[in-house]
Amino acid sequence: MSDSRGDSTPADAESGDGPDAPAAEPDASADDTERPPAEPAVPAVPAAPLPSQAKAPGGATEPVPAVPPPAAPTSPLPRTVPPAASPPAAVGAAVGAVLVPDASTPVLEAANVGVRDRARWLVRGLDLSLAARTVTWLVTLDPVARDATALALAGRLAVDEGHVHVVDPRDATRRSGRAVRRVVGIGWVPRLRLLEDRARVGEVVRQAHRRAGSRLDDETLDSLLTDAGLAGTVGQAADDLPASQKALLGLVAAVAGDPPVVVAPFPSGSAQDRDAMTAFTERLARDGSTVLVVTAGDFRPPDAGPATRVLGRPA
User: What is the pLDDT of residues 185-224, one digit of tens each?
Assistant: First the structure.
């Protein structure tokens, strides 16, 4: 048998390819070659989420700072509504203001008063000033205008134009609008039928005084009716009275509670009833009341003393 180690040739030993040849050393010339420096690593930045993928941050968030309001303009803004015209000097005080009335202060003042029923004017352009402790007869165009005028001046009907002011002499307070009815009494209005018309005359007067917080005995009741020209009617049905006597009865009931101003519509009637109205209103004026009697048409009010005047007398 031949030895396998003896099969190697000198050529194999020199070339180092044999099994016992030492390991090949690295080539030093490869390490001497210059290499470019390595770039530093850049950390990866996560992509921003889409609006639909955004999530609210966890934990407490800082409060949003308050935005201060815009500064006020340095010049006033233009008014869209023109200012109301200033009232006349005679009624220049504010409504509800306390005045110091004297002999020249009107107790009731109406300026350019107008009352309309749909497209028709019942009253328009009425100017009126009533002094304290006087009687005034006002002649209007027709019964419709008479009743509308009385209701408007007494604060029972809203005016469509102008204004009505009343100065209450008891507390020197100027009143307007709905407050007028608190200090102005109104008599019987011919075009308005009252529920108490079916009552007796005496009961109508007693009811008026009970509403005012007072009571009448029989003697005082008879005296009132006699002064008004209604003597002997205490037990008669009020609805059975003539129109002019109903006006007298309405005035007796209206003065219950001593209102400073009384408005009394008065239809055409007999000369006796007219004289009774004249005498009764002048007595009320002497007692401190201001009375306005409103009539209509061609009715001629009476000529009376210095406390009575007539406005709108037909020619």
Answer: 999 988 676 555 668 999 999 999 998 888 889 999 999 9
Beta carbons of 184 and 108 less than 8 angstroms apart: yes
Query: What token pair was written down for 186?
Result: 């109104």
pLDDT tens digits for 141-151? 888 999 999 99
- Phi, psi for residue 307 in degrees, rounded to 5: -80, -5
CA distance 88 to 190: 34
Coil/strand/helix, residue 292: strand
Per-residue DSSP letters for 258-308? --SEEEEE--S--HHHHHHHHHHHHHHHHTT-EEEEEEETT--PPP--TTE
30 vs 212: CA distance, rounded Å: 131
Cα distance between residue 77 and residue 284, in whole Å: 54
Beta-bridged to residue 137, according to DSSP, are: 293, 310
Instruction: Determine the 3-state secondary structure of 305 from DSSP.
Output: coil
